[in-house]
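Below is a concrete protein record.
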Amino acid sequence: MANITEDGHITLSPRAYVNISTGEFEELRLEPGDIIFNRTNSTELVGKTACWRLQMDAVLASYLAGHRPAW
């Protein structure tokens, strides 16, 4: 939840790492334009939203949900 700022930006600190298979990574990887929502925690934090614009290998933590628009 701390990775989405109040003004809708993404910060990469703190960062966590996970070991997943290549297939699972390909299914879950973030792509530029993905919308990220905070789905858990306190009322004031639920719903914090950002757009993923980074070019790096990443997947969402379990407390986040994502949406890939069909532009």
User: Anything to note?
Assistant: Residues 22-28 form the longest helix (7 residues). The radius of gyration is 12 Å. DSSP finds one helix and three strands in the chain.
